[in-house]
UniProtKB/TrEMBL annotation, chain A:
This is Cobalt/nickel transport system permease protein. GO terms for cellular component: plasma membrane. It is a multi-pass membrane protein. Keywords: Cell membrane, Membrane, Transmembrane, Transmembrane helix, Transport.
Automatic annotation (TrEMBL), chain B:
The keyword Transmembrane helix applies. This is Nickel transport protein. Keywords: Membrane, Transmembrane, Transmembrane helix. The chain crosses the membrane at residues 190-209. The lineage of its organism: Bacteria, Pseudomonadati, Pseudomonadota, Alphaproteobacteria, Rhodobacterales.
């Protein structure tokens, strides 16, 4: 979900940019050296996943994969997703440079929330329960993103409930697909590379 | 057992790549009107979409709606810059500006003031010039050259408009194709983006590693 230039009022754009700068600073502090390559891989995952579009109604939606980024990176999802969004705005004209702050907040915010909430449960769990938690995280991240998007539009002037409903239901298939993909990815990672979810010197506290 | 099932399921549901869903708008002069086109980059056109027109200061000049193919027409009455805006809700907004310099001739046309008939005459090409040059004289000498003797006499305004309209209609698919092409995400761009990501994070890694080495030293 990318909001384009000109769709939001100035206060929303400025507030989004300010919060994103805060999030970026916090994310970079919580990005230990050992996690930088993983952050890069998840940034690339997000960058490519957003190019896969599903037509829904008058519009279309695409995969986001911010749940997985949050589970693996926690706060560090902020810089990772920011880089992906920046390149999408520059290369493909998704969103735009002025609304980059808002878009980062809308996508990385839920990512961090999901990371804070569900990451501890995935860390210690066996592969199967971890996969189920991950599926919940994947779906929840998208759901939160749609709510955030509706909020941003509502502050600008759209009615909140209709906008929220529209965005939420348009993303229902994405939620499902992302839940499945995140679950499968975490199940695999838990079996092959369980250390992926370990904490490196306070990556998430 | 469960894992392959889940993976297969998610791959089956995972959608095939489709085009982006950006709302795009194009505007161009069309006689004494401004013609525009609104559409999703997927090729779908929103019918009956309200297009609002504002001047530079943000005052509303008027509005129009799109037809079934996403086209809309607006007749400007003042030679000021026109900003066309379509808001489809849920963050789908498209804007285009036509500057005052471009609007002025359109307004002038509808007022009829500057509509002096533009006319021209093409002299018929001197057809039967004997080809004495060395290049393939045999062929040109035997086949009589048929040069169409089209004399374009002074066209009146109606004829000029008709020609302009025909050209616009003929080039419309071309314009649509160019607009769609601009929205295309090709593999090179995607790979380039991934390259940027690798480079950026590699650079970050380098900085972090340097700091660590410095601390260790």
């Amino acid at each position: 979900m990318h909001i384009v230039d000109g769709a939001l009022s100035n206060p929303v754009v400025i507030a989004g940019a300010a919060l994103t700068i805060g999030g970026l600073a916090q994310g970079l502090r919580k990005l230990p050296m050992e996690k930088i390559p993983v952050a890069g891989v998840l940034s690339a995952t997000f960058f490519v996943a957003s190019l896969i579009h599903v037509p829904v109604g008058p519009s279309s939606v695409h995969l986001i994969m911010n749940g997985l980024a949050g589970l693996v990176l926690g706060w560090a999802a902020f810089p990772a997703l920011f880089v992906g969004l920046l390149l999408q705005a520059v290369f493909f004209g998704f969103g735009g440079l002025t609304v980059l702050g808002v878009n980062t907040l809308l996508i990385a915010g839920p990512s961090v929330l999901v990371g804070l909430l569900i990451r501890p449960r995935v860390q210690g769990a066996a592969p199967r329960p971890a996969a189920i938690w991950a599926a919940i995280a994947g779906g929840l991240a998208i759901a939160l993103t749609t709510v955030f998007v509706a909020l941003a539009l509502a502050i600008t002037g759209d009615e909140f409930l209709p906008a929220a409903k529209l965005v939420f239901f348009a993303h229902a298939p994405v939620m499902f697909v992302e839940a499945m993909l995140t679950g499968a990815a975490v199940y695999l990672a838990k079996q092959v590379k369980p250390e992926l979810f370990d904490d490196f010197q306070g990556a998430l506290q | 057992m469960i894992r392959p099932a889940i993976l297969a399921l998610s791959l089956a549901i995972a959608p095939l790549p489709a085009l982006a869903h950006k709302l795009i708008m194009g505007i161009f002069p069309s006689g004494n009107q401004i013609e525009g086109e609104l559409g999703f980059s997927s090729g779908d056109a929103p019918e009956g979409q309200l297009i609002e027109v504002f001047d530079k200061a943000g005052d509303k000049l008027g509005e129009t709606v799109t037809d079934a193919d996403g086209f809309f027409l607006f007749t400007p009455s003042e030679p000021v810059s026109h900003r066309f805006r379509a808001d489809m809700g849920a963050g789908h907004v498209a804007e285009r500006v036509m500057l005052a310099e471009e609007v002025a001739p359109i307004v002038a046309k509808s007022n009829g003031s500057a509509a002096a008939t533009i006319s021209w005459t093409d002299k018929p090409v001197a057809a039967a010039q004997p080809e004495t040059s060395a290049s393939a004289p045999a062929v040109t000498a035997t086949t009589p050259q048929v040069v169409p003797q089209v004399v374009v006499a002074a066209l009146n305004q109606a004829e000029l408009d008709a020609i302009a309209k025909a050209v616009r209609d003929e080039t419309r698919p071309l314009r649509q194709e160019i607009a769609a092409y601009k929205e295309k995400n090709d593999l090179q761009t995607i790979l380039g983006g991934i390259g940027y990501i690798v480079g950026l994070f590699g650079f970050g890694f380098y900085i972090a590693a340097r700091r660590k080495l410095k601390d260790a030293a």
